[in-house]
Design a protein that fits this description.
single chain; globular; Rossmann fold; 7-stranded parallel sheet
Amino acid sequence: MLLDGKTAVVTGCGGGLGLAIARTLASHGARIVAMDRSPERANEAARGLLASTERQAISIAVDVSSAAAVAEAFAKLDRHEARIDILVNCAGIREVSRIYDLDPVEWERVIAVNLSGPFYVTREAALRMRKTGGGSIVNVASVAGIMGLTHRPAYTASKHGLVGLTRNLARDLAGDGIRVNAVAPGTIRTPMTEGFFDNESFRQGLREVVPLGDKGTSEDVANAVLFLASPLAGFVNGVVLPVDGGWSAEKGYTLGSGDTGYTSAAAKTSS
């Protein structure tokens, strides 16, 4: 199997995108370390992975926004004597507001979870990967990290920061045999976004800007993570892979019916 014998730490594993990623990695042979802020959700994820993939998983509760809590979580993992081959930073939260309405406490909370969290977790994982010959790290960013989205100042800033951290670490950790990449999902239907998808006008708006429509799933993102984490991407480093149905490409020029100006200009240039 693609990840047979590998151990993968997945944060935010208690549901939604994180759990879908964990299931996909486990189905390809990985042993999962399910990390989540909620002990109950972490334990439930581990039990569910055993039931669906017949693979034992380790569950560890951790608040990724706390450097001390992250260090303690990895100390617990050390007691399992499990090497870390793969890390997926998926824990995250969002806010929807304009800057006029965004409480500074909420700003700090989003940055702490979405940006400081991956830094704390990656630091602990990379220290261990370096000792065992390397590994692969995949950060779950967002199209908000490569575009400017409205009404999400803290979330957008945090994901731009995560993209920058990904590119920095891809260069800094390569010498230790550690690859660092990211996926940038568009608006995918998960428990976090369920309320949006219940609104037909929201879905229609998505269909207007996303070439492939509003059908993106957690499994689409999980498969992209699987590729980046696996030996198939052994020479891929520092990439931010959009999984957005073409949303981030939608600013390109589209010819309308009867619009031949571009064709005529091209023909003149080539003649």
